[in-house]
Amino acid sequence: MLQLYTARNSICTQKVFITLDEKKLDYEMKVINLFLNEQYSPEYLKLNPKGVVPTLVHDGRTVVESTLICEYLDDSYPANPLIPNDPYRRAKMRLWSKLIDEALFEATREISFSATFREKLREMTPSQRETRFRNVGDPERRARYMSTYEHGVDSPYVFQAIAHFEKAFKSMEAALGEDGPWLTGASYSLADINLAPYVARLEYLNLLDLWLGGRPTTQAWWERVKARESFSVIDERLTQDEKDHMWKHGSAIRERVAARLKEYLAA
Asked: Can you give the pLDDT at residue 36?
């Protein structure tokens, strides 16, 4: 039996959703409310000591970290493989996963935070905000949250995020042009799946075209990704209010994000 612990609009869990759909696997979904701090409950911390989502429980055994969960599922259920057999292409797949885990995860979080979640924090009382910041166990992550809350797009962390996406899309355009139509070559893989939710978040925020304008090969890849049946699990699990909220607040920072991207390109 597969149980997946997730949260509303969790980007990390979205790639697991896509993997599960591609593998045609049944599972039970358990929702953790991050804004009510349910991720820090003693029961959940026993499963995931970091207090983050997603967490997979498979026949009583726990697997954490979304990238590892996706590989675990592919290893456990060989039908409809998503990891290349060729060692070189498998290494390429893991390089894209590494880029996401080391740069784009935080980049997406900072941009999202500066647009939508910052507004949610503004609606809290000072005491509620303090509790929220205090419950972030990682001091470096807490510093990022506080900087983005205080400065929005002008936070240095958001500037870094904009730069990370520019470098990533530049690399994608080159890689897809050399050996497409997918990131590891002819076959759709976990490289494409892992990246999809992060690109989708920029589109929901009305910001994606700031990077994809002038990059037709990456734009064509994105259209292929969205055309896959499994991609619909992202959109279907978002409410219209959530989608409207992201579009509204992403549009509000669009001009400033474009200006900061221009700053980076001119440097």
From this structure: 81
Lowest mean pLDDT among 59-63, 197-201, 234-238, 261-265: 234-238
Cβ-based neighbour number of residue 236 at 10 Å: 8
Per-residue confidence (pLDDT) for residue 163, from 0 to 100? 98
pLDDT at site 40:
86
pLDDT value at position 234? 93
Report the CATH fold assignment for 2-76.
Glutaredoxin (3.40.30)
Alpha helices per DSSP H over 4-76: 11-22, 42-47, 66-76
Name the pTM for this structure: 0.93
Rounded Cα distance between 102 and 121, Å, is: 26
Rounded to an integer, what distance in angstroms lies between the CA atom of residue 154 and that of residue 46? 37
**The residue to which tokens 């953790």 are assigned:** 32
- DSSP3 helix / strand / coil % (the chain, rounded to 5): 70, 5, 25
DSSP string, 117-149: IHHHHHTS-HHHHHHHHHT---HHHHHHHHHHH
What CATH number belongs to 87-266?
1.20.1050.10
